[in-house]
TrEMBL record:
The keyword Zinc does not apply. The keyword Hydrolase applies. Belongs to the UPF0173 family. This is UPF0173 metal-dependent hydrolase ACFR9U_16405. Residues 7-199 form the Metallo-beta-lactamase domain. SMART domains: Lactamase_B (SM00849). It holds the Pfam family Lactamase_B_3. It comes from Halorientalis brevis. NCBIfam families: PRK00685.1 (NF001911). GO terms for molecular function: hydrolase activity. Keywords: Hydrolase.
């Protein structure tokens, strides 16, 4: 499984022959790319409806859009998406070679476009290369994109022990989401091997010293490796 961080919460995930793009927002300081520079993904995953997560959704009109039914309906109406998969919390859908499970995020989810839209519950996605089961499979690779969220006990009680992510991308910028301290607790609760900070330094309220996140993870006693990626940097989870 390959992961590319395009800044903020925008990730390109490759599972087998399937490309997934999460929360496309290329107007951020960590990427040198415009949406037009990015190859069309097979699937476009949207965690929630805030502008800094769906701003470039319309640039990928050939992708299958995955999100809550309320949010995919909005993308159909406002961005002309032809192919959508509306799903909801706890559900798993097969997206090419990937299995995508939606889990809740503790956040808000209104869309302000002159009219107020309810985009349903904000979410995160757990992406794996095999269907989730209660039988642990050491050959399975699983990546958790937490979306915009605060710390929540579901990370400790459900996502970590049952969905078993190997790696997690977590918001660390504070103010609108978790900051470094609570995100580090999330790393510990999830029991992941690899942690990637996201959703920081995009706007003044979320400018942080990202090294604080590494120090906080160490402070929890977690053995997770923290990977602070450069914008547009790609890693292969099998090689970490």
């Amino acid at each position: 499984m390959e992961l590319t961080w395009h800044g903020h919460s925008t990730w390109h995930v490759t599972v087998g022959e399937t490309d997934l793009l999460i929360d496309p927002f290329f107007d951020n300081p960590h990427t040198s790319l415009d949406a037009s520079d990015v190859d069309e993904p097979d699937f476009l995953l949207l965690t929630h409806g805030h502008a800094d997560h769906i701003a470039d959704a319309g640039a990928f009109s050939d992708a299958t859009v995955v999100g809550t039914p309320e949010l995919t309906g909005f993308i159909e109406d406002e961005h002309g998406a032809d192919d959508t998969i509306g799903m909801n919390l706890g559900g798993t859908v097969e997206c090419g070679d990937a299995f995508v499970t939606m889990h809740r995020a503790d956040h808000t989810n209104g869309i302000n476009t002159g009219y107020e839209y309810d985009a349903g519950m904000p979410a995160g996605f757990v992406i794996s290369d095999t269907v989730p089961t209660q039988v642990a499979d050491e050959e399975t690779t699983t990546f958790y994109h937490a979306g915009d969220t605060g710390l929540m006990t579901e990370m400790r009680e459900v996502i970590g022990p049952y969905l078993e992510p190997d790696a997690a991308a977590l918001p660390v910028g504070d103010h609108f989401t978790m900051g470094p301290m609570q995100a580090a607790i999330a790393v510990d609760w999830l029991d992941v091997d690899h942690a990637f900070p996201m959703h920081y330094d995009t706007f003044p309220p979320i400018e942080i010293d990202v090294d604080d996140f590494e120090r906080e993870v160490t402070g929890t006693g977690s053995d997770a490796d923290v990977h602070v990626l450069d914008g547009d940097e790609t890693v292969d989870l099998s090689e970490l």
